Amino acid sequence: MSHLTSTEIAGRIEDLYGAPLADLEAHAQDQPPGLLSALLGMHDDLALAERSIDVHREHLARLIHPERQIGRHEVSHLLDGSRRLAEAVAIRDVQAKSVAAVLQSLARVPAPTPSPPTASPPLPAPSLPAQNTAHSR
């Protein structure tokens, strides 16, 4: 299952709000918590999970380097590193799925276009005086 990366999510947030992410982060700091700050927080969590995946993957790669001996002591480090990598992947997957679902449910509302002046409706025709049908004497 392919997940959106933090870079793709950042692009979608920028498209939705029509501004660069840095500007949106600065703007959100001056505002009460809302949807923008929630999206930015989800993006930060996703980016952190991606960095954590990279760190744990590199650590495991060093531990299993072909020229390195794996002894009893290294096995516990391999297991711990594998567990941490799996946790980071799970967090990334949940964050990516959640923020993508929220962004998919939102759409940028186009700027309102000025409506052309409408002609005022015609005035109603004046009512005719009621004619008296009774005969005069």
Blueprint (SSEs and pairs):
Blueprint: H1 6-17, H2 21-29, H3 35-63, H4 72-105
Helix pairs in contact: 1-3, 1-4, 3-4
Characterization of this structure:
The protein is mainly alpha-helical and 137 residues long. Helix content is 61%, strand content 0%. It has 4 helices and no strands. Helix 1 runs parallel beside helix 4 and helix 3 packs antiparallel against helix 4. The longest helix is centred in the middle third of the chain and has 34 residues. The radius of gyration is 32 Å and the shape is rod-shaped.
Task: Produce a short descriptive summary.
By secondary structure, the protein is mainly alpha-helical. It contains four helices and no strands. The chain is 61% helix and 0% strand.
What structural category arises from helix and sheet content? mainly alpha
Uncertain spans:
none
- The helix fraction, in percent, is 55-70%
**End-to-end C-alpha gap:** 98 Å
Helices and strands, in N-to-C order? Answer: HHHH
Question: Key terms for this structure?
Answer:
137 residues, mainly alpha
